[in-house]
Amino acid sequence: MIASLRPHRVDVLIAAAGLLGGLCLWSVGLHLQGGLLLPGAWVLVPLAVTAGLELLHRTAPPAALGTGVVALVADQLTTGSVATVLMFTDLVYASVVYGSPAAARRIPWVTVLVSVAALIGFAAWFRTVDSLIHGIAVGLVSIAPATTGVLVRNHRDAAEAARLRAAQTALLAEMDRVQAVTAERARMARELHDVVAGHLSAIAIHATAALSLNEERTSREALTVIRENSVAGLAEMRRLIGLLRDGSGRRAPTVTPTLDALDTLLEQARTNGAPNRLRFTLDDGRGAGTALPAPVELAAYRIVQESLTNAFKHASPGTVTVELRHAEDSLTVRISSPYGDRPGPRAPGSGAGLVGMRERVALLGGEFTAGPEDPGGSWVVRALLPTTERGEGSGTS
User: Fold this and answer.
1) How does residue 383 score in pLDDT terms, banded at 50, 70 and 90?
2) Which residues are registered as beta bridge partners of 322?
């Protein structure tokens, strides 16, 4: 609190200049009136008090103005000093600029009322034209600085409001940027996992088979599958790296997978899953010529792709079935795979696959479930994807 009451250096200069100016005027005998009640050096008392109040007009505007009114009235009982009057106008101005919002609203109206009352009082007391001059002088001393203070305060408040709006706009822009970067990173993470994980899982499984079985034919078949998946995975990696390196702000032209490519995807799955006695079938119930939004087709394709990858890792020997059902406003994707007792996965996993599938469905506003359908039966992944605009995002790559 002590530091907050320390006067500003500008206020110190104003107080010193006002006090020295008043002393100079008094020394040369320049006064405002005769000073019948308190002649002589009494004029220096309100002068000194007003100069002292200048030190407080920023930190304690109400107290400075109230005491300044008393000092001004006392100055009228002496010979009067122009310096005292000028410093009082500064007190009125400061009380509006630095005071509370309520004081800033009330003081201008009070000065108007005081000026009108003074004008009427002088006219009724003196009954001369000179009384009007006294009333106008009171108005200049009070109304003019109060009005100036209102204009300055309004300008300052408008500038502060503009600064706050600019800061809020910058904050919102930064939040949007962070959200966009986060969403893009999540999208790229899903793409990397869904595209590359299947190839790497097949490589790991067949490499294990090649190392564990000392049969030339089996090893050759495993190495053939490893090479095919390596080449395909490398091509996908190059595509994604090209997207990341495109610094022009425009994405390079890429081919987005569609559900029409499911036959190729399942053919590759049959090749990868043959050593583990996995069979794959497709039950496509979309109907001929069915047109789906690109985000829905991509999400459905990636869900099937990731589910097949999980089947390579975890499914027991048997048949993996992919079903597609198209309704009026939705597409249902269902993948069931044999779910039996196994000592462990054929290839390590991070659990990000289910998370990525769930995120893709959530971005489209759909429903996703994954789990065993019955004990010792099948593991079922089911996704209901709306084909109308009700999702939270596009889900495109």
Assistant:
1) very high
2) 282, 335
pLDDT of 152 above 90: yes
User: 């930190």: which residue's tokens?
Assistant: 59
Q: C-alpha angle with apex 227: 225 to 229, nearest 5 degrees? A: 70
Per-residue pLDDT at 360 exceeds 60: yes
Domain count, the chain: 2
Domain termination site, one of 152, 169, 186? 169
Q: Give the domain extent around 328.
A: 259-397
Per the domain annotation, does 300 fall within a domain?
yes
**If pLDDT is split at 50, 70 and 90, which confidence band does 103 have?**
confident
Residue 179 inside a domain? The answer is no
Question: What tokens appear for 189 in the block?
Answer: 């993470």
Cα Rg of the chain (Å, integer): 43
Say if residues 280 and 319 touch (Cβ distance below 8 Å): yes
